Amino acid sequence: MKALCWHGKHDIRCDTVPDPQIQHPRDAIIKVTSCAICGSDLHIYDGVIPGMKSGDVVGHETMGEVVEVGSDVKNLRPGDRVVVPFTISCGECFFCKRGFFSGCERSNPNKETAEKLWGHSPAGLFGYSHILGGYPGGQAEYLRVPFADVGPIKVPPSLSDDQVLFLSDIFPTGYMAAENCNIQPGDTIAVWGAGPVGLFAIRSAFMLGADTVIAIDTVPERLALARGAGATTIDFKQEDVYEKIQDLTGGRGADACIDAVGTEADPTASADSIIDRIKVATFMGTDRPHVLRQAIHCCRNFGTVSLVGVYGGFLDKIPMGSAINRGLTFRMAQTPVQHYIAKLLKLVEEGEIDPSFVITHHAALEDGPGMYKTFRDKMDGCVKVVLRPHA
Ligand SMILES: NC(=O)c1ccc[n+]([C@@H]2O[C@H](COP(=O)([O-])OP(=O)(O)OC[C@H]3O[C@@H](n4cnc5c(N)ncnc54)[C@H](O)[C@@H]3O)[C@@H](O)[C@H]2O)c1
Ligand SMILES: [Zn+2]
Ligand SMILES: [Zn+2]
Fold it and tell me: CA 162 → CA 35, 139, 155, distances in Å?
């Protein structure tokens, strides 16, 4: 089959690789009808995710048609149309039973490596390094889905691929980011990053009752989409983010701040962003946490900082003095997608939200390598790319 494979920094190729096979009775094989490129894939593209090997199949936002099931998969049949969560979860362990699917303690066969880095291992993920299981990803013609009796959700024929694909990741992620803000009537929520995840966080914050949402980015098309969703926008290259949030909140600060940017914040945004860039480039640091610092600074006393932007290692110069003295709450996770997916599918079915609003580009799988660059560089108004491997 054809699949997008990582070969090194800025080197994604559309290769021919062996078709996936059923390896376990709980596996299913999916013929991929649509898959998307995520901001998390850009961290792989940019070479900041350790544990990748040349030839690894990438991608974790995937849906398609079931073509084969293992003998223990009773809930799916060939022909079913499903969306696959990016988190691989057994459904039965301590964490899965509590709804913390992205903490599954049985789905990462390389958990010892993750434990060395992070103390404990999270769940395995599709197409996201050997530290997180080394599972081939879903930017491919076919995908093997482990624990297929737990992850994939069937979707009705009345909804198009573009309307349901993002249930695999970015819609639940944006929703979780907003839910973790514990939104109360009248609240102002500030969202850093108006990329696909930030845009879902903005819409979710309004669905959960926010009065005002402030979106921070610099890309005109993305700020326009944020305004289209009802947000007030700040261009971080034109305005002082802290001063503007102070103005908009009567000098108190935002009730909650969402970091939907993560480790690849714009290196030119501020002096600390430039220093972070130099430290990472010279192996003196692992991450570039400018947005997290600014989110803490802009959050009101006893407010919440909700992180969904991904970080990898050991973050420098985080203002914990500000956080403890002012009673901030921190919430964060790789999204336990299985916890949210049925509820959010219902919102799509009821017409509460049409997730296809973020899509700017459709392309064939062969065009994937070029689309990584287009998406990374935000060229041609690109906000979200959907690939159709069989079109
Ligand atoms: N926690 C999870 O489960 C999960 C799931 C999906 C994605 N993510 C992460 O969410 C983040 C965003 O993903 P995306 O797909 O929207 O990516 P993206 O790269 O398209 O969007 C990031 C946006 O942040 C903006 N930005 C950069 N520097 C900024 C700054 N200093 N202030 C404000 N905005 C700034 C960029 O202009 C861009 O629009 C990534 O880190 C990704 O890895 C996490
Ligand atoms: Zn993702
Ligand atoms: Zn589990």
Answer: 10, 15, 12
Atom of ligand 1 nearest to the CA of 194: 39
Which residue blocks in 235-367 are alpha helix, DSSP H?
A: 241-248, 271-281, 290-298, 320-325, 337-349
Task: Note the pLDDT tens digit of each residue in 31-68.
Answer: 999 999 999 999 999 999 999 999 999 999 999 999 99
Residue owning tokens 């560089």: 377
Query: Which residue, by CA, sits nearest to atom 39 of ligand 1?
Result: 195
Mutual angle of helices 271-281 and 290-298, in 10-degree steps: 150
Give the number of the atom of ligand 1 that is nearest the alpha carbon of residue 216. Answer: 33
Q: Which ligand is nearest to the CA of 276?
A: 1
Å from CA of 37 to ligand 1 middle: 12
Amino acid 50: pLDDT: 93
Q: 251 C-alpha vs ligand 1 centroid, how far in Å?
A: 27
Mutate to test the pocket of ligand 1, among 261, 274, 357 (most ligand atoms within 8 A of CB): 261
Token pair 């081939």 in the structure block, residue: 136
Nearest Cα to Cα of residue 84 among 150, 6, 2: 150
**pLDDT tens string 104-115:** 999 999 999 999
State in Å: Cα 258 to ligand 1 middle.
11
* Statement: the pTM of the whole predicted model exceeds 0.85: yes
Q: Report how far residue 111's alpha carbon sits from residue 78's, in angstroms, rounded to the nearest whole number.
A: 32
